[in-house]
Design brief:
This protein has eight helices and four strands, in the order H-H-H-H-E-H-E-E-H-E-H-H. It has helices at about 10-20, 25-35, 50, 55-70, 95-100, 130, 150-165, 170-185; strands at about 75-85, 105-115, 120, 135-140.
């Protein structure tokens, strides 16, 4: 087991975690994993994950990445990945996919790489192993990329996927299907 990385008072995000009694990187992971899944009122302000007690893969991982940068933990990296979102890796969306006549839909997802393995702190039951066999693409990003860049990249990916598979559904229909799946997870 890795030696716990202690959080030192090195800035506002570090203080936010310390104020919650979270004193190590490992405890920060647990703390964020236990926060309920849901969109915050402003996805640009990652601290709202703690203030509003909810967050998505983007906001939770961006907050953890911001903490890591503030602490100088260079081996902690934020990644954007695309995977085939379907029932076996995202339980609770099968009915939506069936209604939309889809086997899967490409989903953009954020994870952390800690120099040893990929970590998914989206929820208590989230595990990177669940999606890794369905990975389509991965790239290293910065926390601020989870806002506009991630969404643009995701929409472009779905448009390209639609074209490659010659799907008859409109992009709007596919994006609404994706949004319905995300809503079902909240």
């Amino acid at each position: 087991m890795a030696v716990p990385k202690r959080i030192e008072d090195k800035g506002p995000v570090s203080r936010l975690f310390l104020d919650q009694g979270v004193e190590t990187f490992q405890k920060a992971q647990e703390y964020l994993r236990n926060i309920p899944y849901g969109r915050t009122s402003d996805k640009k302000d990652f601290t709202l994950v703690i203030h509003e007690n909810k967050g998505t893969c983007s906001t939770k991982h961006a907050l953890l990445s911001t903490l890591s940068s503030e602490q100088g933990w260079d081996q902690i990296e934020l990644y954007l990945c695309f995977f085939r979102m379907k029932e076996n890796n995202t339980p609770g969306i099968q009915q939506i996919l069936l209604q939309r006549k889809l086997e899967y839909i490409p989903e953009a997802h954020c994870v952390i790489f800690d120099s040893e393995k990929f970590l998914d702190i989206t929820s208590e039951d989230a595990h990177f192993d669940r999606i890794k066999t369905d990975l389509l693409f991965m790239e290293k990003i910065k926390p601020e990329d989870v806002v506009e860049y991630k969404e643009k990249r995701h929409k472009d990916y779905i448009k390209r996927w639609k074209k490659e598979l010659k799907l008859r559904q409109s992009f709007k229909h596919l994006w609404e299907a994706r949004e319905a799946c995300i809503l079902a997870l909240s």
